[in-house]
TrEMBL record:
Amino acids binding Mg(2+): E183, D207
Keyword field: Cytoplasm, Kinase, Magnesium, Metal-binding, Phosphotransferase system, Sugar transport, Transferase, Transport
Subcellular location: Cytoplasm
Active site: C254 (proton donor)
Described function: General (non sugar-specific) component of the phosphoenolpyruvate-dependent sugar phosphotransferase system (sugar PTS). This major carbohydrate active-transport system catalyzes the phosphorylation of incoming sugar substrates concomitantly with their translocation across the cell membrane. Enzyme I transfers the phosphoryl group from phosphoenolpyruvate (PEP) to the phosphoryl carrier protein (HPr).
Protein name: Phosphoenolpyruvate-protein phosphotransferase
EC number, as in UniProt: 2.7.3.9
Part of the full-length chain shown: 247 to 571 of 572
Taxonomy, superkingdom: Bacteria
Homology family: Belongs to the PEP-utilizing enzyme family.
Residues of the PEP-utilising enzyme C-terminal domain: 7-292
Amino acid sequence: QLLLYKKYLNKPSITKDGKEVEIFANIGLPDDTDKVIANGAEGIGLFRTEFLFMNRKNLPTEQEQYEAYKDVATRLKGKPVVIRTLDIGGDKEVDYLHLQAELNPFLGYRAIRLCLDRKEIFMTQLRALLRASAYGNIKIMFPMISSVHELREAKQMLQEAKKALENEGILYNDTIELGMMIEVPSAAMMSDLLAKEVDFFSIGTNDLIQYMVAVDRGNEKIAHLYHEFNPGVLRMIKMVIDNAHEANIWVGMCGEAAANPYMLPLLLAMGLDEFSVCPSAVLELRYIMSKLSVDDIKSKLDTILMMAEEHAIEKYMEEYYDKHI
Ligand code: PEP
Ligand code: MG
């Protein structure tokens, strides 16, 4: 199997009928970059920067962060590197911030919410990201955006960081792309409005599903309700992709669903532009993709989106997969 996939190492990610997409990889720490390159990913679609903040005793400095981001961007040699700003909180803890314990941490003080409150932490990261952007194809992405106002506030901070660097005569890429995660249902529902404010979306299904079906993604007891093929979830994903394309921006997915082989035909049919998965899944996806025809699966999309039960959809997709792969 591995040998079979190896053949796809330096090939583009293209379907049997010629539709090209991008397969990127997710990383947590700069060292993961080796795996990204070894598996032939076309870029990094999600760099979870919170890991730079975890398992230590204090906040990483601007210089430390700058070096980490620059290191990854340099090693990717001009390929895209989507770096997500801090997503602390929820299930990711940072002791030295002494955050108050919360009854519902996934609905609480986390990610962009924390960054817009602790502006000095956010500003340090934005400066480090901008400085590193002079050395590669870095794109910045905000997590957990739930309103347009929140996005605009974060954009304002980025603008201030740019101005500060300019005043100090420090180089950065002034055409750096800015994107946001779609992982909160309110953001998905108004993705038409948000799409006018950013250069790209990345759908975070890990959180989007838990918020849509009201199931804590770590709770084993109700895990059966957390289902990627839930028709509500699928319809929302399609809506986000349509809204992005309507506004002429690209849209990817960096949640676990992007790596599900049975989900792949559906996402291709919906027109997803970029898949960001763990490095070890890149070649398998590229292989499966090469066996699929988008036109064929597209002709079945309406039928699938009218199916009422997640299990029926999953079974349909498994059968589709077995027939074509
Ligand atoms: C997601 O929510 O799908 C995602 C990619 O972010 P994380 O898993 O880091 O919350
Ligand atoms: Mg998330």
